[in-house]
Write a structure and sequence with these properties.
Structural class: alpha+beta
Strand order of the largest sheet: 1-2
Number of helices: 4
Strand content: 15-25%
Mean pLDDT: 92
Amino acid sequence: MARAGITASDLGWKQHIPTAEGEMLHWDYYAYAAYQPINRWDTPTEILYAESDTLQPRETVKAFARRFGCGMTVIPGEHWIPLDSPALQAWLAEKMK
């Protein structure tokens, strides 16, 4: 939202706002996430992070992983990792052992 110059007030007023990147921001999703913060994470979790992700800062993901004991693997790529990505396939094969 910040990168698109959209405030929570803007989103609340309009309910749905498209970004220049083609994504749609939804008030319901934002409100759910903003007003129900995660305090516990009891499910074993592995995070696959693309090194060139421009939507989510690596430090934010690392902090989440540290706080909740999640594994984190960084692979080449951008935010959207194609299903046929060799790095994704190798990661999945390793995690499914």
